Amino acid sequence: MTARPLNATAASLLGFLHLGPMTGWDLVAIAERQIGAFWSITQSQVYRELAAMAAAGLVEPGERGARDRRPFSITEAGRESFAAWAAQPPGDELIRMPMLLSVVFGAHTPPHLLAAHLASHRDRHAAKLAEYEDDLALAEGAPPGYGPDAYIRACLDFGIRYERAVLDWFDNLPAEILPDPAGAAG
Amino acid sequence: MTARPLNATAASLLGFLHLGPMTGWDLVAIAERQIGAFWSITQSQVYRELAAMAAAGLVEPGERGARDRRPFSITEAGRESFAAWAAQPPGDELIRMPMLLSVVFGAHTPPHLLAAHLASHRDRHAAKLAEYEDDLALAEGAPPGYGPDAYIRACLDFGIRYERAVLDWFDNLPAEILPDPAGAAG
DNA sequence: TGGTACATGTAACATGTTACATGATTAG
DNA sequence: CTAATCATGTAACATGTTACATGTACCA
Fold it and tell me: Nearest to residue B99, comparing CAs of B122, B76, B72, B81?
């Protein structure tokens, strides 16, 4: 029915369904793991998009299994729709950093409070970096032909470079903004 | 009426209104210039939020001027609301990069097409970097006491580090993904 | 037998996007 | 006179978020 172009979220679900039939739950998990760093998806979105795509004939529900699992598989129309999406030039990135908003208006916040918030964010970014580096080590340890392909590794690499840049930024903030870099003794 | 906590978009409008009364148009322009890199706002959002905040008593419309300009000023309640927002720990960042989505599913796209899309994005990032670097040069050239404060400069610095990291990523993609880095002769 | 993880789904709402309608003012 | 820019606003829709309701199966 719907010839409307796919949105990126729906498209990514179709992308994963190329690997085989999956339930909404599976899709949430794989999306979180593989694209969570630069494309967040919530559970209710997944079920909503699956329902819409099923109505549009892009996916097909299979038999309900144990625990009411309902696997969806991609249809031929779904593959075509996905291919059309993939051929389009990707849109511009969207970055929303409430933390930087806090920084721009930093003059309105008690300095110790702003510093504490920044330190907390720095920790989170450090943790993410560590996580991505672990993933990369795993990827590189995988026997040839196994493990993530070059495309997926490139995304991991992006995450690592991004997090490193963010940490560098934290560590080079002027003392008036972040007096005592988290984790540093002196 | 509304004691509901501010959303970040509304809060940033209030933040700018600390500088003095502004019209919706002015706010769009200043937001685009100062926080556009990490917080996008559209015109219709601005007018909607202004209307909502006026209803909630956080801003007050002034007399209409030439060209029907309608300046809004922040009220005392608005200042309080903004201060409360600013004291909260900033939320997590949200990054949405359709380009990386294209990369993850890169195996489904004709290589020359993907490469062309990537090259185009690389150009855009290079342009942004140049723009931020110009801004920084301007900021550093300003006489002491004029020009952007340390907080605003820190955000600029973020933009520069971010764009550099992105460009480095492009320039280190494996040849199977981006065979001929844009702008490079050999 | 009780807690945790699995699994699906809905409802209500907030936020963001796109397109359009309308008109004033200015510069050439 | 006319095109560009300034300026406000609405309508319709798409997308994203949060909270909740319901129930299954595994494991200690």
Answer: B122
Contact B108 A172 (CB under 8 A): no
Look up the CATH number of domain A8-87. 1.10.10.10
CA distance A25 to A44: 10
For residue B100, how far is the Cα from the chain centroid?
A: 20
Q: What is the pLDDT of residue B67?
A: 80
Q: Is the CB of A7 under 7 A from strand D?
A: yes
Contact B104 A35 (CB under 8 A): yes
pTM greater than the 0.90 cutoff: yes
CA to C1' distance (Å), from A100 to C25: 37
Distant-in-sequence, close-in-space partners of A34: CB < 8 Å, separation ≥ 6: A16, A152, A155, B104
CA distance A161 to A11: 26
**Contact flag A176-B95 (C-beta cutoff 8 Å):** no
Q: Is A151 on the interface with B (CB under 8 A)?
A: yes
Q: What is the pLDDT of residues A123-133, one digit of tens each?
A: 999 999 999 99
